[in-house]
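Tokenised fold entry reproduced for absentees:

. . .
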Amino acid sequence: MKRLLTLLLAMCMILSLVACGQKNEPPANNNPGDSANQPSGGDAGEPSDGSYKLGFILGSREHAFYCSIEDGINAAAKDLGFEAVVLESDLKGDIASQRIEDLVVDECDAISLACNEPAGCTNAIVNADKEGVPMFTFDCTTDLTDVVKCFVGTDNYEGGAVGGRACIKLLEDMGMTNGATIGIIGYPEPQSCIDRENGWYSVVNEYKDKYNLNIVNIGNYKGDADTAQALMDGALVEYPDMAVIFTVGDPACIGAMAAIKNAAATTKMIGFDANPEAHEAILDAENGKIWVGDVAQDPYQIGYQIATQMVDYLKNGSVPESTILIAPYLVDASNAKA
């Protein structure tokens, strides 16, 4: 009997010690990431300032444009007090999809991306939304779903129209308003570039009959300067007297300019993005004879604004506008920056 009582007392002491040891520990299924998102004294799901983790997916850091967007994102992170996780998709939808999945697993409170190939990543956008992660887009968006909370980007259609008007003015200034050949190098995959192309056509088609224009679609450069050079090489063989071209992105201008130089052609170019290399080329004594203008965006402001909208949504459950468009403008030798 004594041995039984002694055993029972020992078991009680052990159970008491175990219970005391567990009293101040979190539950076994508690996630430290979840507790970090709880404000002191606030309701669950409403993080205090500085506790948001926001995910961003750039098109590619090989493009100066996206590097400027990242600068805007980082500035917003400093000003608004959130953690920014910035990845890139290499302009590919399947990679963007994987990045979205990675950021969901990383427990980002919201995600935004440059939706360069909508068909390849829209399912991932929808799935993230179903997981409770609000989705945003910048620069390029998708019309294949309505779950995107806000899009921030350039007014690309108007930008294309700016480029179209610049092309027509070049023809007029050169006295080539009868039967001139003009071309466009496009990228009909990102919605932003589709909008630029449509905006350009909206202007030049108005002058097609008036000036008897021969309008040539040079092809899809796929965001690659070497591809643009090959396309322009072929175009100049068929149309050696091409007067003016418009490109939907500066990398296309870099490739096209190389082709124009190799062919010793007199073709003029209007680009789109106004990256630093565009300003440099426009102001250069030789390159400026070819690359004469560029449609400018404000990528820094795009990055800052999309981050601001994400924070606003997380705080308030909504954003003032579902689409925020930033006006483009023409850069030429009169206003390019050295």
